[in-house]
Amino acid sequence: MQEFDLIVLGSGPGGYVAAIRASQLGLKTAIIEKESLGGVCLNWGCIPTKALIKSAQVFEYLNHAEDYGLSAKSVSYDFTKVIDRSRGVADSMSKGVQFLMKKNQITVIEGYGTLLPGKKIKVTAAENEQTISASHIIIATGARSRELPNLPQDGVKVIGYREAMTLKTQPKKMIVVGSGAIGIEFAYFYNAMGTEVTVVEYQPNIVPVEDEEISKQLERSFKKAGIAIKTATEVTKVDTKGAGVKATITL
């Protein structure tokens, strides 16, 4: 059994930074990751969504070039290339974390980690299973998308953030359920690219954890951009039998 001073379970921004600092302080360190180094943030969250938003922002600038004293004619976009750029940015960031792990002599163990008694972790990979131990363990497993009981995700018509980030074709219409940071990012991106977007938020304001002034201003900006906003509203059920989705909402 391999033994370490410190094992970090999860390689997101919390985990990989902790591992680097521990190694710099002289601890023999290992990090366990079930998917890609950098975790959800670098691969499926903060970073790739910002890449999508940047493409949408540049597209908006081009469409309003005259406002800046510039001229741009026949402005168009390739949706597939926009998505590919986002994935490329994420892959580049993940490779950067790989480099940092090597540079700081951190042992990277690929697989799903399960915490065991006695400061041990069982790591299950596709081809093997091993148990490692350490004097200290940091759990940095992050969070996952919550599936609502009345909105079962089928990955095709009712989708989560991963599918929303890698769609092969752009939808003509989209309902975004929830207006937290992730929902708002997707609403902005798809609206800017020409999708008809409706945001449904259960709370009285969009981005409900932010200041009320920010929420009201953002709502004004989104409505001006053509996004339909429905607050204090709940999606109670969806019908996916037809070509699209029929959503029932309750105000």
How would you describe the overall organization of this protein?
The chain has 251 residues and is of the alpha/beta class. The protein folds into two domains: 1-144, 3-Layer(bba) Sandwich (FAD/NAD(P)-binding domain); 161-246, FAD/NAD(P)-binding domain (3-Layer(bba) Sandwich), CATH 3.50.50. The protein is built from seven helices and eleven strands. The protein has a six-stranded mixed beta sheet, with helices on one face. The chain has a three-stranded parallel beta sheet with strand order 7-8-9. β5 (120-124) and β6 (129-139) form a beta hairpin.
Spell out the blueprint of helices and strands.
Elements: E1 2-9, H1 13-24, E2 29-33, H2 39-44, H3 46-63, H4 79-103, E3 107-110, E4 112-116, E5 120-124, E6 129-139, H5 161-165, E7 173-177, H6 181-192, E8 196-200, H7 212-224, E9 228-230, E10 234-239, E11 246-250
Parallel strand pairs: 1-2, 1-6, 2-3, 7-8, 8-9
Antiparallel strand pairs: 4-5, 5-6, 10-11
Helix pairs in contact: 3-4, 3-6
Q: How would you classify the helix and strand content by structural class?
A: alpha/beta
- Tell me the total number of β-strands: 11
**Average of pLDDT:** 95
CATH homolog superfamily of the largest domain? FAD/NAD(P)-binding domain
- Our measurement of the CA-to-CA distance between the termini, rounded to an integer number of angstroms, reads 58 Å
Number of helical stretches of at least 4 residues: 7
